[in-house]
Amino acid sequence: MKPLRIALTLAMLSASAAFAQGAPKVEVFKSPSCGCCGGWVEHMRQNGFQVTTHDVADVPAERKKLGMPERLGSCHSAKVAGYVIEGHVPAADIRRLLKEKPKAIGLAVPGMVPGSPGMEAPKPMPYATLLVAGDGTTRVFASH
User: Fold this and answer.
1) Residues 6+ away with beta carbon under 8 Å from 28
2) DSSP of 97-142, one letter per residue?
3) How far apart are CA 12 and CA 18, in angstroms?
4) Which residues contact 62 (CB under 8 A, 6 or more apart)?
5) For residues 127 and 13, what is the distance between their CA atoms, to the nearest angstrom?
6) Cα(67)–Cα(132) distance, rounded to whole angstroms?
7) What's the average pLDDT block by block, 10 residues per block, for the chain (144 residues)?
8) Which residues have C-beta within 8 Å of that of residue 100, sequence separation ≥ 6?
């Protein structure tokens, strides 16, 4: 019985390692003092993403380097699979982006909307996740 238990444990560990390797990698650029960014990072991890964070002094400068228009800014910017993610974008929207692979800069939830991931609130507000085209124009990708 003991060898069977060891074999099952090893199989589970192997499957977990394979899942972690296949998990999309997200690189986040955030202010060291922003608590809601940490909430969004945790949301992403809970939804199967592998997240690395970088505390930066100037989030707008990072946003500019990544190619996201300033008018769509929020409190953090991220990169995943060649796309830029701006703000409190739900993990489900990012998964859809990675599945559909549209030609775009990425996704944005401008500002800091109460009720978005990491910005949980007793009175959530409706918001849209925007798909940002290469020329900076946007269209609604998802409504929440």
Assistant:
1) 37, 40, 41, 51, 52, 53, 54, 76, 77, 78
2) HHHH--SSSEEEE-S--TTSTT---SS----EEEEE-TTS-EEEEE
3) 10
4) 29, 56, 77
5) 39
6) 10
7) 47 43 89 87 97 95 96 96 97 98 98 94 95 97 97
8) none
**Pick from 95, 83, 81, 109: which is nearest to 44 by CA?**
95
What the block records as the tokens of 128 is 């849209």
- Tell me the three state secondary structure of residue 74: coil
| Unique residue bearing structure tokens 């999309």 | 24
- 84 neighbors 132 (Cβ within 8 angstroms): yes
Q: Tell me the torsion sign for CA atoms 55, 56, 61, 62.
A: negative
Strand, helix or coil at 84?
Answer: strand
- Beta strands 76-80 and 106-109 are unpaired
**DSSP reduced 3-state for 45:** helix
- Considering the entire predicted model, what is its pTM? 0.83
